[in-house]
Structure formats: structure tokens, C-alpha cells
Amino acid sequence: MANLKNLAKDTAIYGLSSIIGRFLNYLLVPLYTFKLSAASGGYGIITNLYAYTALLLVILTFGMETTFFRFVNKEDAHPMRVYSTTLIAVGSVALIFVVLVLTGISPISHLMGYDEHPQYVAAMALCAAIDAFQCIPYAYLRYKKRPIKFAALKLLNIFLLIGLNIGYFLLLPKLQPSMTYDVGYVFYINCAVSALMTLFLYRELTGFRWQLDRPLLKRMLSYAWPILVLGIAGILNQTADKILYPLVKPTHQGHIELGIYGACAKIAMIMAMITQAFRYAYEPFVFGKARDKDSRQTYAAAMKYFVIFTLLAFLCVCGYLDILKHLIGQDYWEGLRVVPIVMAAEILMGVYFNLSFWYKLIDRTIWGAWFSGAGCAVLIACNVIFIPRYGYMACAWAGVAGYGTSMLLSYFVGQRHYPIAYPLKSIFTYVFIAALFTALMLWMPKSWPTPLRLGLNTLLILAFVAHIIYHDLPLRDLPIVGKYFRKG
Fold first, then answer.
1. Helices in 167-213 by DSSP H: which ranges?
2. For residues 28-43, b (16+ Cβ closer than 10 Å) or e, as one string?
3. What is the pLDDT of residues 414-457, one digit of tens each?
4. 217: closest CA among 93, 120, 333, 350?
5. Are 304 and 427 in contact (CB under 8 A)?
6. Which residue in 245, 231, 270 sits closest to 49, CA to CA?
7. What pTM did the predictor assign?
8. 260 closest CA partner among 438, 396, 121
């Protein structure tokens, strides 16, 4: 019981630090979109290069973070030898990557469309390399069960980023009123903060002998490469549209449109935060229930409640979009129509995540690579084919097509190998109601007074909540408030 309590506590710390961190990092979006006009294309550059950074982070760690946990916990393992080998492997790859990028900075910048700003590409590459190396000492902190330091450093990193960005975008212009913003400073600041965070990991990088165990590394690489493939497919599902957009539309207008899409898609990331919070709680829950006789019924019920509450969040964002849109600059509002579509894609991704546990429970993770790869291929194809004609709307719908493909494949194949009786009739009833209410919200003319539209949207949301309470979550069954209804 004590071990379970410690697991719950550590999970809460890791989960809260990640969710709070993403929320704080989200606060940079209003800063960037209010200070960098859509017409400048600056936020499009930020969106594009950070998408590259996310992909590079997966490639440069090449599955070694997960591999470290697998090998350091083996019965015959020498923990510090495993840790040292992992550090040297990831650090060497990161260093070689930086040298290659800096050596070929001109042709690389040309291919990416940044001929006039190769320094942006160099800063992005350096930042990705530092972050990739730091993944290993952060993994070591988790292995040593030090969630407080892990969470503190992650939050400190974000506070420093926010502070320096505020200094550059808000305070410095008061000292130099004639200054013009250089979007490159977003990446320079990120590099400086990442380098500084390495100093705070000093204890995790010293006090032991650095040694490379070549036979061990060979076994680790054999274990890591499928994880790398799965990781690349997964991250491309999230970033391919933002990487491809300037390549398909290699003009300044391309960066303008990508900036509008990227800013509006950030509003939809509220759904990603909810999905991530669910994931932190659900992963240990699923594996903990695997041996129970009623585990499949529990998984089916968990899927239903996941869909219910993500649809409720979906309706809340759509219903109060007139308020939430003020999180970004007004000249980005023309892209707000992508928000419901991007959120729908996030829900499909969450459902796919729930469905993915069948192949993890039977140790057939190769299926995950096939499903994610197929979804990624569909997403990339949709972007390449339709961006020239439909612009960033193609990006939004490509996400729905890609995640939808992965979800359907996982469901139908899973029903053959690990059948679970999901309550599809009830789930689709909620989907239909949410779709109907969303259509009504979007149908309301913009000429109607905002308070009237918000009031009507609130009534629709309350009607959805009433349906939940009546059919699946009676008030008498709720903690605290339930006792008052039971008395009645």
C-alpha cells in the first residue's frame, strides 16, 4: 500500500508540473501574437521552427530515454554504467548533430526557406541538441525518485523563459522606443535558458565515472530503434503540418498563414492538456487493472467517460470562443474557424490513446508503429495535396483524417486480438448531441449581441451537463454532494 501511495504522489507531481508547465508556456502565445503582427509572419516562423525542434528532440534522443529505464531496472544492471553509457551516446549524437548543422548552415537554411536568417536555424539546432542531452539527467531524476527536483527544474525553465521574453518584448521597448522586434530573440532566449538549466543538473552529471560500455550500448540500440520509429511517427502526427506548410507555400504569405493557424491552434491545446492529465492517471490505472477479472468492462467504461468529458470541454471552448479569442492578437482571429476542427482531432487522438492499450497489454507494440505510421502517412498526404488550395484549413482537417485513421485501425484490429465491448450506442449519442449543439453555436449570427450568444451557448452546455447527470452520473453517486441527494 505504501508503494501505491508513493506512486500516486509521484504521478501527481509529474503530472501537475507538466500540465502547469504547459499552461505557463501557453502564456507566451498572447505575448507573441500581440507583439508580432500576423502580417509580419513572425509567429509563423516561431511555429515552424518549434515544430522542427519537437521532431529533432525525438530523433536526437532516439528512444534512449525509455531504453534507459528498461536497462537500468534489469536484475543484473550496473545503474551508473547504464546511465553513463546513455549520457555519452545521446550527448555524442547531439554534439555531432550541432557540428554538422553549423558546418552546412547555408544549404540547410536554404532548404528550410531561411536563406536570410541562418542564425534562426543555428539557434534552433543548438536548442534541440541541449534539450535532447538534458532528457537523460531528467530521466535519472525520475529513476532516483526525485520528483520534486524534476518538477522544480521544469517550472524554473519555464519561468525563466517567460521572464526573459517579457523583458525583451515589454520592458526593453520602453528603454529603446525605436527598436523593432527580431523574432530570432525567441530562439536565442530559449538557447540561453536551456544552457543555463544544464548548470542546475550539475549533481546529475558529476560524481561518477563516465564510461561507454560498447556491448551494453549495442543491446540498448537494438531495443531503442523501434521506439524511435514509433516516436517519429507520433511526433510527425503533431508537427508535420507546421513543418510542411512553408515548404508547400514557400512565400512570406506562407509564414503569415502558418502563424494564424499556429496561434488559433494554441486555443485548441486546452484539449491536449485535458488529454494529458487523463493520460497521467490512466496509464498506471490500466496496467494495475490488467489482472482483474472485470478489467475489460472497466476499460470500456473509462473510454466512455473520457469521451463524455472531452466533449464537454469541447463544447465549453466552442461556447466561450468569443472570450477565449482574446488570448491571441486580433489580427489572428480570422483563423478561429480551425479551433473546433483541431479540437476534434485532439479528441480522436485521445480515443486512439485509450484504444492503444490492448497491444501494450499483450506485448505487441509493433501494432502501434503500424497504426501511427498509417495515420502519419494520411496526415502528410492531406497536407501536401490540399494546402495549396485550402491553406491552413487543410492542416486542421488533415489532423482529423490522420488521427481518425489511427483510431479506426486500432479499434478494428484490437477487436480481433483483444475484444472489449465498448458502449458504442451511448458514446455515439453523446457525439451526436455535442455535434448538434456545436452546429447551433456556430450557426448563431455574429451580428447577435455577444452576451446573447454567450447566454444561449451556456444553456446548451448546461443541457449537455444535464444529459450526463441524468444518464451516466447521477448526483446521488457523487462524493460530498451526493449525500444530500441520497437524504432526499
1. 172-175, 184-200, 202-205
2. bbebbbbbbbbebbbb
3. 888 888 888 899 999 999 999 999 999 989 888 889 899 999 99
4. 93
5. yes
6. 245
7. 0.81
8. 396
